[in-house]
Amino acid sequence: QVQLVESGGGLVQPGGSLKLSCAASGIIFSGYAMRWYRQAPGKQRELVAGISSGGGFSTDYADSVKGRFTISRDDAKNTVYLQMNSLKGDDTAVYYCNAEVSYGPDFWGQGTQVTVSS
User: Fold this and answer.
1) Which site among 20, 44, 95, 117 is 20 to 30 Å from 61 CA-CA?
2) Taking the CB of residue 118, how many other CB atoms lie within 10 A of it?
3) In this structure, are residues 21 and 73 in contact, taking their beta carbons and an 8 Å threshold?
4) Within 31-74, where are the H helices?
5) Are 32 and 99 in contact (CB under 8 A)?
6) Residue 17 to residues 37, 55, 76, 110: CA-CA distances in angstroms?
7) 3 state SS of 72
8) How far is the C-alpha of 27 from the C-alpha of 115, rounded, in Å?
9) Distance between CA 50 and CA 30 in Å, rounded?
10) Any residues with CB less than 8 A from the CB of 102 and at least 6 apart, and which?
């Protein structure tokens, strides 16, 4: 059974930081590209950041988070992270991790709420 479990969300003041984690089980984690998405109320789900598989670990980011967010992965722990700094109100959303591989279905976590408010 495949599981992606996000953690680390919460309430933070503007300008603050949070680090999200997504622990995977039931997949060969190292073979999957990993992505973080977010969905704010009334808006479509959007891609926030992605990191490739296979050791090269290339990364890409939405323009809105470049320079503030950093995605990383630890294949030994089957975990992907999203370090979020200089948080803004617009970053308020449910954050989801996604595991994608070219030869099979992708998988989603249940999401973790991030609220940026004073």
Assistant:
1) 117
2) 8
3) no
4) none
5) yes
6) 17, 27, 25, 21
7) strand
8) 30
9) 14
10) none
CA distance 60 to 47: 10
Mean per-residue pLDDT over the chain, rounded: 96
| Backbone conformation region of residue 10, classed left if phi is above 0, alpha if psi is from -120 to 50, else beta | left
Which single residue is written with the structure tokens 């803004």?
88
Distance, CA of 2 to chain centre: 17
Cα dist from 77 to 42, 51, 61, 80, 81, whole Å = 34, 15, 23, 9, 11
Tokens 């590209």 sit at which residue? 33
**Tokens matching residue 1:** 């059974």
Return d(Cα 45, Cα 29) in angstroms, integer.
23
Question: Alpha-carbon distance 114 to 54, whole Å?
Answer: 29
